[in-house]
Amino acid sequence: MANAFQRLIGLDPGLQRTGWGVVESDGLRLRHLANGTVKSDAKQDLAQRLMQIFDGLNEVLTEWKPHTAAVEETFVNKNPVSTLKLGQARGIALLVPANHGLVVAEYSPNHIKKSVVGAGHAHKDQIHAMVHMLLPGVKVDSVDATDALAVAICHAHNLGGQAAMTRARASA
């Protein structure tokens, strides 16, 4: 029996720019569908900026109708105010897919790097090179969109591994 394609969205949250990437996976193959960046206006107050991210992600999910979503976990940086604002943008990135009825997975930056590159401490340029290798011919909207595609690829790999384990248990 052939595996059905599953549409996944990866999100790389940020207050200025939230990257998104949509791929399809059948457990073995990946196919790029779309990517982009939702931007907020730095001249607006925080509530308005969060609403811009909310509205932008709603549009993306309405258009692409993914089956599942994944979001990169926030790292804590030296500036607590920046970390808090990033956390609020990340909350929007978790809320929007959940509001669309999706299960939302979360992955640490090191888990994403290890899944995409094979090393948990890979550099950004290595991740971006692997995204282009795994999704041949992809034209990426931004660095943030490339990061979001890496999140989607990581999620696809994790779902593929779970499906393989389920099949192995069923045949045992």
Quick rundown:
By secondary structure, the chain is of the alpha/beta class. It has five helices and five strands; from the N terminus they run E-E-E-H-E-H-E-H-H-H.
Mean pLDDT: 90
Percentage of helical residues? Answer: 40-55%
Number of helices: 5
**Biggest sheet character:** 5 strands, mixed
Care to count the β-strands?
5
The quaternary structure here is single chain
Rg result: 16 Å
Helical/strand content category:
alpha/beta
Strand order of the largest sheet: 3-2-1-4-5
Question: What does this entry look like structurally?
Answer:
- The protein has a five-stranded mixed sheet with strand order 3-2-1-4-5.
- It has five helices and five strands.
- It has 172 residues and is α/β, with parallel strands linked by helices.
- The C terminus is likely disordered.
Structural key phrases:
172 residues; alpha/beta; five-stranded mixed sheet; 5 strands; disordered C terminus
Q: How does the SSE layout of this entry go?
A:
Blueprint: E1 6-12, E2 17-25, E3 30-39, H1 46-64, E4 68-72, H2 80-99, E5 104-107, H3 109-116, H4 124-134, H5 143-171
Parallel strand pairs: 1-4, 4-5
Antiparallel strand pairs: 1-2, 2-3
Helix pairs in contact: 1-2, 3-5, 4-5
